[in-house]
Amino acid sequence: MSVIQVQSPGLLTTVQDLGREGFGPLGVSPSGAADQLSLRLGNRLVANPETAAGLEMTLLGGTFLFPDGGILALTGAEFHSTLDGATLDFWTAVEIRAGQTLSIGHARSGARCYLCVQGGIAVKPFLGSASTHILSGLGGFEGRPLRKGDTLQVGSPTEPFRKRTVALRARAYLSSREILRVTIGPQADWFSESSKRSFYAETYRVGEQSNRMGLRLEGPPVTQISGREMITEGVSLGAVQVTHGGLPVILFVEQQTTGGYPKIANVISADIHHVGQLRPRDEVRFEHVTQETARSLLMEQEKMLASEELILE
Fold it and tell me: Does 67 share its domain with 7?
């Protein structure tokens, strides 16, 4: 079994897979990659199952030594990256020699990039997943972001190196959206028609305090109809809660599993990966779509991901 040695961890680098579904009733949110599509494609490039664990880096990447070499791919937001000083392409499988060093710098756009290695990052699963849940300190590598000096185990190789590249049309599909599509939230009728029109018409800015638990948005407050109080209830990934101050919060992959704020909308599944690439000070708007449209968009997305023409050799 080969290893990766962490020479510099970057700003926030964690082990992530596609998360642990089904434990909401126990108070455990899924966690997992903030941009699952990028992780899935990265794993396909290196001949891993889509569910294999990789490294998620946020805003600033790290420096990693590969004493035994390996096969890797970088996906997601493009970070300035080099292999022994030579520029490394994104969205392409690369074979590296024993002793080479991968250096990943600042994000050029977006928020997160993914390092996938053939064999996957080998850590002890927690509730069936390798994903790191930062707030609870569970899963991943010792339940925390990586530190200088950490040594990561890599699973066994699956096949000989084959140069694979993600097709340009898929990369275009993954490019950031300034308008997030949403369905109506369960408490949408708690807001006046004028407040809902304002919610969909205004532009919001991602706040500095945003994280994997939720994205706090700054902008014109959304006013509730007075005199209504709700009992805490279960919440879903992508739910747009409105706080007492009137500002929206998009609940994200490490969300609390229950909440007591009214939910005016919910980001559709097909756009969740776009939420994962939002960075502080980015601006977003919301567009209402029907449940039927949301399902159709998700089906189109999965059909695109399943296409044999998506990965070029």
Answer: yes
